[in-house]
Amino acid sequence: MEESDKIYNTAVEATLEVIGGKWKPVILFYLTFGKKRNNELKSLIPSITQKMLTQQLRELEEEGVIFRISYNQVPPKVEYELTDYGWSLKEILHLMCSWGDSHIERKYGGKAVVLSNPQF
Questions:
Q1: pLDDT-above-70 percentage for the chain
Q2: Which CATH class, in words, describes the domain spanning 11-105?
Q3: Start and end of every HTH hxlR-type domain (predicted)?
């Protein structure tokens, strides 16, 4: 038997390794609506710190799901967008959003608020 580089109990672990955590799915979800600049993402996710946003963007870029576009201008301009590989996550991210809406309604009824509810 060939020795494995990595062993997963289930493929869900591999998915969560890439998009898991509090912020990565949120960042990716917003990127399904198009390119975003750092400040746009920060305003869409006000509770994330700049340091954490930068770290999460770097990790997503390393995984190949987002692409960082740097424009050679003053002041510097950087945008982030999904790669083709990243676009393959769109359906699952939007399903997570739909499930979350149902969960919020089930658990809280009309006593919870979703601050940003883009139409998809």
A1: 98
A2: mainly alpha
A3: 10-108
H helix runs in 1-120, sequence order: 11-19, 24-31, 38-44, 50-62, 84-87, 90-108
Q: Whose structure tokens read 């493929």?
A: 11
Give the pLDDT of residue 115: 84
φ, ψ of residue 7 in degrees (nearest 5): -120, 130
Q: Is the pTM of this model over 0.85?
A: yes
Residue 105 to residue 41: CA distance in whole angstroms:
26
Q: Using the 8-state DSSP alphabet, how is residue 117 labeled?
A: -
Taking each helix axis as running N to C, give the angle between helix 11-19 and helix 24-31, from 0 to 180 degrees, rounded to the nearest 10.
Answer: 80
Name the token pair of 111: 């006593």
Asked if 32 contacts 82 with a C-beta cutoff of 8 angstroms, the reply is yes
Q: How far apart are CA 34 and CA 96, in angstroms?
A: 18
